[in-house]
Amino acid sequence: MFGHLVPACTPGSVLHDPAQIGIKAAVKQPGGVGSRLSAPKDVVIWPAANGNCWSPDMLPVNAPLAVLEWKCDRPGKAKQNPDGGVLRRLSMARCRGGAWEDEWLVLPAGET
């Protein structure tokens, strides 16, 4: 992931510093999702370098620019699709103005 994102860092652009990129970074959970206040996400892009979701009181309040989350169902560990094949997908959530669009982009098995 770094090999693709770091070269895209350009001064003056939205992604301007490699330190904006977080791997397995905690992100505030959307309202009504589970009982935890935060959850780790695979790749997180923060608005500023060294960003995170935490307030000084250690509450998850800060929103990222983007979250990339991979999901892969494996035989014996997750659901399988109806034809018996292994279901694989890549999904991306988008955070815009602090509001989450969960599964904003989903690429099913045939497109990954």
How would you summarize this macromolecular structure in one to three sentences?
By secondary structure, the chain is mainly β. Helices cover 4% and strands 37% of the residues. The longest helix has 4 residues, at 2-5.
Task: Offer a few descriptive terms.
single chain, 112 residues, mainly beta, five-stranded antiparallel β-sheet, 1 helix, 5 strands
Structural notes for this entry:
- The chain has 112 residues and is mostly beta strands.
- The chain has one domain (2-111).
- It is built from one helix and five strands; from the N terminus they run αβββββ.
- The protein has one helix spanning 2-5; strands spanning 21-28, 38-45, 66-72, 88-96, 99-107.
- It has a five-stranded antiparallel sheet, with no helix packed on it.
- β4 (88-96) and β5 form a beta hairpin.
- The longest helix has 4 residues, at 2-5.
- The protein starts with a helix and ends in a 5-residue tail after the last strand.
Give the topology.
Elements: H1 2-5, E1 21-28, E2 38-45, E3 66-72, E4 88-96, E5 99-107
Antiparallel strand pairs: 1-2, 2-3, 3-4, 4-5
H-E string: HEEEEE
Termini separation comes to 15 Å
Strand order of the largest sheet: 1-2-3-4-5
- Morphology: globular
* Low-confidence regions: none
Q: Helix segment count?
A: 1
Strand residue content: 35-45%
Overall number of strands:
5
Quaternary class:
single chain
* Rounded Rg: 16 Å
| Helical percentage | under 10%
Question: What is the overall pLDDT average?
Answer: 78
Major β-sheet annotation: 5 strands, antiparallel
Q: How many structural domains does the protein architecture include?
A: 1
Summing up helix and strand content along with how strands pair, one would put the structural category as mainly beta
